[in-house]
């Protein structure tokens, strides 16, 4: 089937500007790239933050959307890893319009995509890439970009941290959902997380051993009632001043807390106690992440086939790309709980 010349895309025309549905040329893949017909694109908090707060992106017009799943419909020079018709998923690239998800076709680096296994839908697959990147980088990238732990890829590397406790703030967040599963693969125990009590059974099914109510502060006494072993590793998928401070007070000397927002000022004082915050940015295109992310994507299909990694819960929004704006407003208002909102760009009218 011949490819179209133009496609529908959702642009932010200028900094702080509104989303606008436009027609753009369908891009062509270059060396080591493929063209993907996007079937599902998931929304993330960073999408509304960029549009409303004017952060992270300098060049406009800008295309957002960083969780992509679809079909390979074009091959660039040198591509042998996939074929036309393969179903794949990937993470979009912030600041690169051709590689973003709020459009009907996107260019994808062949080294940072994974095939969708038969047990997953496009919608399922679109919930994975952004959510797993931050905890994977935060836990397994070398210092100063991560904790420098051994990635749990392959049976020989799973269970390396058996008997070591970990605390994960925000188990029902997108990043927390995947952090719990990675911690389980690495053998951490107990895996203590925070969430609304209504999500306890779901999070325990992923691998959490204890779920503390997120409505109250997490204290050292609560953690010590679960384990007498000192906490040296924390993944903070919330990273408000409150959760960062709670983690700081729980951490043992020499401990590290991975945060997804900017570290608070008190971490400077924490150096006196040999405590540190590691600010993780989950973008695959950052040079210090790229090789690690390539390794992850080479292994993701197998992990998903075996059920060792599970996608996030899905809520599909109607009307294709026209559903993005309403979905992002819902997310901004805090009305999204333990689900990823997904649009289907091919349904755009």
Automatic annotation (TrEMBL):
- InterPro entries in UniProt: ADH-like_C (IPR013149), ADH-like_N (IPR013154), ER (IPR020843), GroES-like_sf (IPR011032), NAD(P)-bd_dom_sf (IPR036291), Trans-enoyl_RdTase-like (IPR047122)
State a single Gene Ontology molecular function: oxidoreductase activity, acting on NAD(P)H
Query: SUPFAM superfamilies, per this entry?
Result: GroES-like, NAD(P)-binding Rossmann-fold domains
The record places domain Enoyl reductase (ER) at 17-343
Lineage top rank: taxon: Eukaryota
Identify one Pfam family in the record.
ADH_zinc_N
Q: What is this protein's record name?
A: GroES-like protein
| Lineage of the organism | Eukaryota, Fungi, Dikarya, Basidiomycota, Agaricomycotina
């Amino acid at each position: 089937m011949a490819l179209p010349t133009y496609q529908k895309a959702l642009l932010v025309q200028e900094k702080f500007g509104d989303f606008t549905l436009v027609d753009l040329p369908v891009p062509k893949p270059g060396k080591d790239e493929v063209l993907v017909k996007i079937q599902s694109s998931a929304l993330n908090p960073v999408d509304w933050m960029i549009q409303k707060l004017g952060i992270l992106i300098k060049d406009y017009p800008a295309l957002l959307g960083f969780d992509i799943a679809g079909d390979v419909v074009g091959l660039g020079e040198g591509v042998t890893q996939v074929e036309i018709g393969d179903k794949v998923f990937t993470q979009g690239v912030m600041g690169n319009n051709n590689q973003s998800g709020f459009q009907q076709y996107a260019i994808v680096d062949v080294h940072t995509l994974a095939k969708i296994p038969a047990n997953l839908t496009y919608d399922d697959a679109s919930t994975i890439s952004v959510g797993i990147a931050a905890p994977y980088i935060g836990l397994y990238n070398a210092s100063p970009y991560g904790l420098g732990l051994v990635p749990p890829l392959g049976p020989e590397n799973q269970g390396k941290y058996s008997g070591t406790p970990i605390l994960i703030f925000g188990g029902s967040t997108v990043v927390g959902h995947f952090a719990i599963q990675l911690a389980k693969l690495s053998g951490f125990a107990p895996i203590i997380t925070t969430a609304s009590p209504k999500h306890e059974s779901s999070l325990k099914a992923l691998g959490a051993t204890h779920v503390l109510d997120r409505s109250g502060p997490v204290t050292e006494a609560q953690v010590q009632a679960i384990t007498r072993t000192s906490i040296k590793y924390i993944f903070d998928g919330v990273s408000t001043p409150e959760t960062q401070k709670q983690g700081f007070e729980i951490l043992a000397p020499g401990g590290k807390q991975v945060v997804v927002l900017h570290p608070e000022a008190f971490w400077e004082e924490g150096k006196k106690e040999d405590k540190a915050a590691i600010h993780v940015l989950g973008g695959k295109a950052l040079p210090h992440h790229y090789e690690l992310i390539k390794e992850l994507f080479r292994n993701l299909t197998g992990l998903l086939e075996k059920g060792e990694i599970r996608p996030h819960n899905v809520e599909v929004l109607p009307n294709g790309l026209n559903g993005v704006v309403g979905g992002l407003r819902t997310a901004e208002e805090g009305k999204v709980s333990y689900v990823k909102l997904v649009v289907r760009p091919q349904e755009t009218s």
